TrEMBL record:
Residues 52-184 form the Thioredoxin domain. It holds the Pfam family Thioredoxin. It comes from Actinidia chinensis var. chinensis (Chinese soft-hair kiwi). Keywords: Disulfide bond. InterPro entries: Thioredoxin-like_sf (IPR036249), Thioredoxin_CS (IPR017937), Thioredoxin_domain (IPR013766). This is Thioredoxin F-type like. It comes from the Eukaryota.
Amino acid sequence: MAHQLQISLSTTCSSSSFRSPPPWPTQRSITVFSEVFPKGFGKRIEKIGVRSGERKQSPSVRVRSSLDTAGSVVVTVGQVTEVNKDTFWPLVKAAGDKTVVLDMYTQWCGPCKVMAPKFRELSEKYLDVVFLKLDCNQDNRPLAKELGIRVVPTFKILKDSKIVKEVTGAKFDDLVGAIETVRSSC
């Protein structure tokens, strides 16, 4: 699901504010391409005004987003991809027959923080595996419940959109062993 985000910045000035044209451009447009935007993103944000002394400059920001899919979801290997309740299953389905490893963590969990850099290293080592991470916060609670999380960190290993292995706790060697087992069972 590739989406396009276009941000237009413009500045308007009253003619009596300046004796000559302003020394900065009066309009800029920036286009950003991203793989995933949160559900419902794309509403227009307009007119964020700022006044500076007597100049009466009023910059406005307009955000437009195209939520039409420009193709299928792109699965990235070699890095850890943050997912949420809306993006998890589409990414897992897009992975096809690739092994998917999901790190289910929380921001306050000490063992989760210890495992995070090791998990990132694994994503750089196993380029045939998709590595995802899910913050089990209030917003993602329905997905965490659906996946049957009881403790953090929990690592779910999926193959063909099905959970085939689980490692609970900060057990790095067990996680590596589980990944190797699933990879070799192809």
